[in-house]
Design goal:
Order of helices and strands: HHHHHHHHHHHH
Radius of gyration: 19 Å
Strand content: under 5%
Number of helices: 12
Oligomer: single chain
Helix content: over 70%
Shape: globular
């Protein structure tokens, strides 16, 4: 999500843009890692009861709590430091609104959101999923800020729907595999309702991507509606992920996708089509 603006803005071949974007991606890797470390500290008792998470370093006792705390805070400090470096390379381009936030501002906003999720939002059904999805959208804005740009509205909508699909899929897997006995926060979720919400979010992600590919601003950038050729691959990837979520074939949507060879091949094909359309030579 951080690197997507670099590709879709046609700046992949620009060394300065590539450097700023890679630094921004590294910053968010560090911020996310720090956030996960602190979140796992809070979740340690519940994770000991989770079939997949019980073997992780903190729940298993292999990693001391003090070491995890130090590691988490160090990652967050390093991530903010890289965000400051990117801000120096690409200061905010606009005088107001979202364009004035800047790379470091998006890093701080991401930290605030993930902190609120860990402390409060995760216990509120509905808000927990929206917070997870919003964290992915903030990544897209941060990646765009590193290029002194704002992302396309339809690309943000597609990213938000895709993030919502993954967040709802995560809850769907947790409800079916763990249940409210181990995590009381899962009690309000009904599996049938989650299935319908997963389907709706997948449909919305696919539809918003199609609209993005044919939007006039996109066509002007890539020289026509060529990106529409990648839409069938997006639809197939969403359909396959939806089916695997329904069959409970993993403990996490990302793990489910990364360990499925057809999905990886489909994503590679989509990437090649997108690069061929955006970066084709005249």
């Amino acid at each position: 999500m951080v690197l997507a603006p670099l590709v879709f803005a046609g700046r992949l071949e620009d060394p300065a843009s590539l450097r700023a974007e890679l630094l921004m991606a590294a910053a968010f890797c560090l911020l996310a890692s720090g956030g996960y470390a602190l979140n796992d500290l809070r979740d340690q008792p519940a994770d000991r009861l989770h079939p997949a998470k019980a073997g992780r370093p903190l729940p298993s006792g292999a990693l001391p709590r003090r070491a995890a705390l130090g590691l988490g805070l160090a990652c967050i400090a390093a991530g903010l430091g890289l965000g400051w470096v990117v801000q120096r390379l690409a200061p905010p381009a606009g005088a107001g609104g979202l364009a004035a936030v800047g790379p470091l501002g998006w890093c701080v906003a991401y930290l605030a959101l993930t902190g609120a999720y860990t402390v409060w939002l995760r216990a509120i059904a509905g808000l927990d999923v929206l917070a997870l999805a919003a964290a992915f959208v903030l990544r897209a804005y941060a990646g765009s800020a590193a290029l002194q740009l704002l992302p396309s509205d339809w690309l943000v909508a597609c990213g938000a729907c895709l993030a919502l699909f993954l967040a709802l899929g995560k809850r769907r897997l947790e409800v079916s595999q763990v249940g409210a006995a181990a995590r009381p926060a899962l009690a309000p979720w009904d599996p049938a309702v989650l299935d319908r919400l997963v389907d709706l979010s997948a449909l919305a992600a696919g539809a918003s991507y199609v609209v993005y590919t044919v939007a006039p601003v996109t066509a002007a950038k890539v020289g026509g509606p060529g990106l529409l050729a990648s839409a069938p691959l997006v639809a197939w990837l969403l359909y396959r992920a939806r089916g695997r979520l329904r069959r409970d074939e993993a403990s996490d949507p990302v793990e489910l996708l990364l360990r499925d060879r057809p999905t990886l091949l489909g994503f590679l094909a989509w990437t090649l089509v997108v690069l061929a359309v955006i970066y084709r030579r005249p």
